[in-house]
Every structure is written in C-alpha cells, then in structure tokens.
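Entry:
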Amino acid sequence: MSVCRLALPMPARMSVDPESATPVYVQVAEILRARIESGELRPDRPVPSESQLQQELGVARGTARKGIALLREQGLVVTVPGRGSFVSLTR
C-alpha cells in the first residue's frame, strides 16, 4: 500500500516595495510583525539580525534597525544589549 503525500506550497516571502508610499522601515516592521503573528517567530526567540534583514529584504542596515525599533516601541520586540532582539513574551 502506498501513501500519497500532498505537498502544500510554502507561503510566499513578503518583500518591501521601495516605490510604496509606506516608508520602507514600516514595511520591514510589518513583515516581522506578520512573522510573529503567524508563529514563525516565536516568543523569547531572536528576530533576524539587522544584517540578516539587510540581505534578505535588500534594505539598508539603518532601515532594518528602524523597523526593529518600531516593533520595540510597540512592545512586540525586546532588545538585550550584546545579545540582540527577541520576540516579546507578552504581546
């Protein structure tokens, strides 16, 4: 007896739109927020580093930094000096 496995498509990675009226750093924050809300980024686990976001999304490091700072202001992310940024335990 053979087992038929159905391969489900992976969700498409979100990307930034530099021509959008929405600032790029806000788009970065929205992408990370979506990953947190979907469970891809779990509480008390690190968010991608600024350099990882720079490579993955094609944004400047400062833009990635501003996106993470926006999430920190909103309480979704905490930053530990010398350790990095992590998804907040409480949302």
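DSSP finds three helices and two strands in the chain.
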